[in-house]
Fold this sequence. Notes:
- By secondary structure, the chain is α/β, with parallel strands linked by helices.
- The protein is built from 13 helices and 14 strands.
- It has helices spanning about 5-20, 40-45, 50-55, 80-90, 105-110, 115-120, 135-140, 160-170, 195-200, 210-220, 240-245, 305-310, 335-345; strands at about 30, 70-75, 95-100, 125-130, 145-150, 170-185, 210, 225-235, 250-255, 270-275, 285-290, 290-295, 300-305, 320.
- Strands 1, 2, 3, 4, 5, 6, 7, 8 and 9 form a 9-stranded mixed β-sheet that branches.
- Mean pLDDT is about 85; it is low at about 30-35, about 325-335 and about 350-355.
- S-adenosylmethionine binds near residues 12, 16, 101 and 105.
- S-adenosylmethionine binds near residues 16, 100 and 102.
Amino acid sequence: MSTNSDIVYTSVKNYYGKVLESSKDLKTSACTTGSAPHPIVLDAIRKIPTAVLDKFYGCGNPIPLGITGKSILDLGSGSGRDCYAAAALVGPEGSVIGVDMTDEQLTTARENIDKFGETLGYAPNLKFLTGYIEMLREAGVPENSIDICISNCVINLSPDKPRVLQSVYDSLRDGGELYFSDMYADAKIPEAMRTHDVLLGEGMAGALYTKDFESIARSIGFAQPRVLAISHIEVHDAELKALVKDIKFYSVTYRLFKAAQPDEKEIARGQTAVYLGTIAGHEDKYELDVDNVFAKNVPMPISANTAEILATSWLSPFFAVEGVTTEDGKELKTASTESLMENALSASCCKPKQESSECPGQSGCC
Ligand SMILES: C[S@@+](CC[C@H](N)C(=O)[O-])C[C@H]1O[C@@H](n2cnc3c(N)ncnc32)[C@H](O)[C@@H]1O
């Protein structure tokens, strides 16, 4: 790792290990109206020890349903809220690994596993590894071993994002997915802002411009990035507001599948997919992304890319995909991330730093 990376690591470890004591100390809040945790995930969160919840520093809700028995990896797991919730959802047959570089956060994460097991009624298959998300092999995550990698407001903190995505890609099984929430900007962050300690810690200094991120993901081999949720992040601190000027920040939940990419463009080829309604919590409909929402038992025209994902990924048991026969050349419209950001901005609504019993451990939840 270069000296620049070392500076970032030291600053970020200091921020999450020493400066912040609880979620209430954060200086921004992700407005999660559109992506508040699903009631099934909330049920799991309510079982998590308070010490873990108090140090939750995420900016979204990247925990998919339908993951019973799956192997989950959480990048930058912090005190472990999302790992604990995922451990409840995968059940005794599944497994969850959290990777983080900050000792203080890992101590909280590890100390509460036994207590959580007592609440669950079984010892969860849950462990926390010390390491860097750019070097998952060195941290102890085997290649091709993970079904779903999640992450909550962490990749923006990495000094080498292409390396993180490559490391995740190699960790995933074929048909696996990186399902994660992170902080993005509507412009490239100027160099002068990139070394400010608080901006670094809060994630703004490292927030990627969405277009740059999507192009890195494609170049590594992920299928076309899918946006599942997007919301505006409010900056409350006056000093930080002055520093970021008119750059706008967003929490975006992306889905990146390790699946073949049959077409460069989203071209319809006469395929359809039917959602079988078999994911608990999504009995009536399933939202793959903002463009592809499937009502139960209703055949939907899909692109070649979406057909590949639904037919070959971990989601395949939940869908019937048919008809890769004729190419009619009709283009399916996909919303650009920029237009989604504009919508999120006009929908901004957050009451800063609010936490409610509806949303434990989720400050900034409207
Ligand atoms: C914003 S907090 C989010 C923690 C957790 N995901 C949550 O939702 O509470 C960022 C976490 O990522 C960890 N982190 C940041 N960069 C990392 C890296 N390159 N490798 C490993 N961990 C990292 C930090 O130590 C910190 O615990």
